[in-house]
Amino acid sequence: MNEFDVIRKLSGLLPPAPPEVLVPIGDDCAVLRLGGGTWAAASDMLVSGRHFKGWADPADVGYKAVAVNVSDVAAMGGTPRFILVSGAAPDPETALGVFEGVAEACGEFGVYPLGGDTTGADALTVDVAILGEIEGVPVLRSGARPGDLLAVTGELGASAAGLLALEEGREGFERLKARHLRPRPRVGTGRAAARLGVGAMIDLSDGLASDVRHVCERSEVGCRVDLDALPVSEDARRLAASLGRDPGVLAATGGEDYELLVSAPEHVLDALAETAGLPVTVVGEVTGAGIDFRRGGDVVEELSGWDHFS
Amino acid sequence: MNEFDVIRKLSGLLPPAPPEVLVPIGDDCAVLRLGGGTWAAASDMLVSGRHFKGWADPADVGYKAVAVNVSDVAAMGGTPRFILVSGAAPDPETALGVFEGVAEACGEFGVYPLGGDTTGADALTVDVAILGEIEGVPVLRSGARPGDLLAVTGELGASAAGLLALEEGREGFERLKARHLRPRPRVGTGRAAARLGVGAMIDLSDGLASDVRHVCERSEVGCRVDLDALPVSEDARRLAASLGRDPGVLAATGGEDYELLVSAPEHVLDALAETAGLPVTVVGEVTGAGIDFRRGGDVVEELSGWDHFS
Description:
2 copies of one chain form a homodimer.
Chain A: H1 3-11, E1 21-23, E2 30-34, E3 37-47, H2 58-74, E4 79-89, H3 92-109, E5 112-120, E6 125-134, E7 149-153, H4 158-167, H5 174-181, H6 187-196, E8 200-203, H7 208-219, E9 222-226, H8 234-242, H9 247-253, E10 260-264, H10 266-276, E11 280-287, E12 291-295, E13 298-299, H11 301-304
Parallel strand pairs in A: 4-5, 9-12
Antiparallel strand pairs in A: 1-2, 2-3, 3-6, 4-6, 7-10, 7-11, 8-10, 9-11, 12-13
Helix pairs in contact in A: 2-3, 2-6, 4-5, 4-8, 6-10
């Protein structure tokens, strides 16, 4: 049994959704209609030894736990508003460090901490639950249509490159390390994309090769992605090369960039690029069926058949 | 530094509360005004080795993680509505077991699961965040007034007795074990207490000796509690006696009963007892200052001075 089987078995256990539920489990956030407002809700957990190691200090972990949840709200086109934070830490000093990072992220993203829980544990574990406000209609994973272009914000592979630099104990590469430790969710760009009416949106947490598959499955479409088109920065390329890694593959599979992947017609992407204040790069297009990663004219098999759960 | 110091330092890091926040951190739940409605929000985390051991199966852990959050909403006089669940488990089978318990609790308490996160970890860890709906005004910890009586719902010490039976590997005592593994939050009674206008309310998670202190601190009052008045069941007394434990002390300090402690004038408690469908037992009264646990006429020093954080 893998994570996918667990999710499939679980969906059989779900009770009927109450009328407030506009979007149930299965997207970046669930969406609720409460009073006159529309609210996105999600949670994400970071565990020591799985999501980070000794190279992350407790404040980094607290900051990132907030940021990755903010990114889920950004991917619906929402504004992050409130969080709950549960932290399990081996000692009170570590817990305090986590909450200092949480508070810093709250200030940066305009999020208010409503409370949570603190407990002891051998492994530092931080779970954040978030409520975000959506003006208008949430952008779902299911809205991609054949003929749409696929575009990503910012850059890909920087976080994975930063992680490699941290894991290998490389000097320098501070920008890449910071991209991994303190990701910068694209809240303003997500809201702009929603206003402009993009078809589908998802945040790039697992990596493009996996996340584009989520969009295609929910939208019942396929896609063609050009590895050479992925926006990879010069320092990320340099680090990848020094470790014998293919920068395009790193950018497609590394994950944790917390950029946005959007599908939309070209004129919508042009309008988004004008307002975004960061690069919006076309990386492929939506097709009728099949996930097709290419480099030039050649199919890259290991990505086209890539399985996140294996 | 202890948990109390952490919380004190953290309150200095809080940004100003947005206008939606009616009750910030520091009560059983935070309370938000969203659209036309009033919503309670809280989260609680359970960690293997701290909150449970091998005697709890994954479904018990999932069930309890929901129940303890439902209890927080009950303590505000609210109705539990939506949860997010983040689970870290050593293998997918354990994760599935947790979510089966979560689904069972959702059915039992009328709560809808909006989603969450699943990840790997050495120690099973489950965090639940909850949204509850409040009709009318939330009941806070800060509303106790000198002259009010203090009463508890149901029974105390059963969960602690059940935990002892589980830890000691005792045969039998199934009712007590179930009280520990699958607590029964008092949602209907909490709502009735809110409608009847009780002064203060808290759920008994840490144990009466600690939780009554939270009420007194927030209300800036004291209390007198009679250990002999605590409602302790015959089987809990029998188990305590067999282990040489004082049943009154066990009931006051054991914790995890998830009953409600309310402060109110006598006629309000009488009305509550009529509608509650379970015992509502007067255990003491609110005074001007000082925490005073007594047995007959004698002060019980170790409880009157009891410090949850030491």
